[in-house]
Write a structure and sequence with these properties.
The chain has 14 helices and 18 strands. The protein is of the alpha+beta class. Strands 1, 7, 8, 9, 10, 11 and 12 form a 7-stranded antiparallel beta sheet that branches. Helix 12 links the parallel strand 16 and strand 17.
Length: 439
């Protein structure tokens, strides 16, 4: 399971989209906006449907994949007293926070760029609860507490009840297990309501392919009105290809303090999200001379380590990533096009040849010939550019139909005048790195 974090705003939007289906008997009034400046917030307030931004007291906070925003003094819920924040206050606060570098208590630092703004929800501490779910080992685990808020992590073992739910447990047994583990300090009058919500929350978590989902706190108001005050969510990335409609236009942002993805990395990430295969790309050094197109996550680690070890200069390694899980010919060509475009943008500063490692172990089910067809199609488009950079190509691959794949890619490279050496599973998986660097 590949877990990818999403913004609080997007997590709440998924709740809102599916609320009627999953949370029978409860109401959630989704009012939330995601903005990147005070001016954008003010402009949003002029749009139909967002009049509440001018009519209700507001709460504003960064929405950039980091927690403990309250402890970092990054939640605006009052100017003089709770619930007195106006649209103008929120816009000015956002602009001020964006005007300088922010350093968190954890030491992370960077620029704040995205903020979530919502109505202020008056409530008491007794109305706050905690609920989350994630996968631990072979089971899903549901966590519940009568205490919500920042302090729930203090004394976790005493405050939080855990329910381990095997993947094959029946709906009836899940309901029984949840009801049997409702925290004893939840008021008797609210236990049945909380249990009902918890059962539906878990089904929502599992059906929507969340890898982690936490509401802290969830506020239970009168008449079963629910307020999601703070939310953390990660999605199971491997399910993205079949969840596009259910998740909607989800963004997987870079975490606060980290360098943003390049357009090419974003393009591969978007292709990955739409595919049942795994397509990953990280640019380590766009000026590097050794580029890799490796099948398999484990193999990509081994190749990267070997290149760093044998080259003697880790900055020679330009990229890290993988294409695996049975990508189509078209997906493989798109991945190769992206890679070849990047590697032919800059001459090596020392005038050396560029090296392309097309590596992989022995595929379990990926048809090697089909994926190599995508690479060959890309060769045909980028052959002249690859030759202009004196690119030497080294291939090592095994798996279904690998003989045809190796034969086809050798013939294509020879026809196009590209330097290529091709090896099958008789050659050690990373020996082509040594061959490339010794030449």
């Amino acid at each position: 399971m590949a877990q990818r974090a999403i913004r609080e705003y997007d997590g709440k939007a998924i709740f809102s989209k599916h609320w009627e289906k999953y949370f029978s008997g409860f109401h959630y009034g989704f009012k939330s906006v995601l903005v990147t400046s005070g001016a954008e917030l003010k402009a949003k307030a002029e749009e139909h449907g967002f009049e509440w931004l001018k009519q209700e007291p507001l709460v504003a906070k960064p929405d950039m994949l980091f927690g403990k925003r309250g402890k970092n003094d990054l939640v605006l819920f009052k100017t003089n007293k709770p619930g007195d924040v106006t649209l103008a206050d929120a816009a000015a606060w956002i602009d001020e926070k964006m005007s300088h570098t922010t350093t968190l208590l954890s030491g992370q630092h960077g620029q704040l760029t995205h903020f979530i703004v919502e109505p202020f929800t008056p409530h008491s501490q007794e109305q706050e609860y905690y609920i989350s779910a994630t996968t631990v080992g072979e089971d899903d685990v549901l966590y519940m507490s009568a205490e919500g808020g920042m302090e729930v992590e203090e004394g976790w073992d005493e405050k939080v009840n855990e329910v381990h739910i095997p993947i094959n447990m029946s709906d009836g047994d899940i309901e029984h297990a949840v009801k049997a583990n409702i925290p004893s300090d939840i008021p008797e009058a609210n236990k049945a309501t909380f249990a009902s919500f918890a059962i539906q929350f878990f089904k929502f978590y599992r059906d929507l392919n969340f890898a982690y989902l936490e509401i802290n706190p969830i506020v239970m108001l009168d008449n079963n009105e629910m307020a999601i005050l703070d939310l953390v969510a990660r999605l199971d990335d491997t399910a993205g290809f079949m969840m596009r409609d259910s998740w909607g236009a989800i963004e997987f942002p870079t975490a606060f303090g980290m360098e943003d993805q390049s357009p090419e990395e974003k393009a591969i990430a978007e292709a990955d999200a739409k595919s049942g295969a795994s397509l990953k790309l990280t640019i380590l050094n766009p000026m590097g001379r050794i580029w890799t197109m490796v099948a398999g996550g484990g193999a990509s680690v081994v190749y990267a380590d070997t290149i760093a070890d044998l080259s003697g200069n880790v900055s020679d390694l330009a990229n890290y990533g993988e294409y695996s899980g049975g990508p189509t010919t078209g997906e493989t060509k798109f991945y190769a096009d992206t890679l070849f475009d990047l590697m032919t943008r800059h001459k090596d500063a020392k005038g050396r040849d560029k090296i392309l490692i097309i590596g992989g172990a022995i595929a379990n089910f990926t048809d090697v010939a089909k994926t190599f067809t995508g690479i060959i199609q890309s060769f045909e488009e980028y052959a002249e550019k690859l030759k202009a950079h004196n690119t030497r190509i080294y291939v090592r691959r095994g798996g279904p139909n690998y003989e045809k794949g190796l034969k086809d890619i050798k013939e294509a490279a020879d026809r196009l005048g590209l330097y290529i050496e091709v090896y099958g599973p008789e050659t050690h998986v990373t020996d082509i790195v040594r061959m490339a660097l010794e030449k």
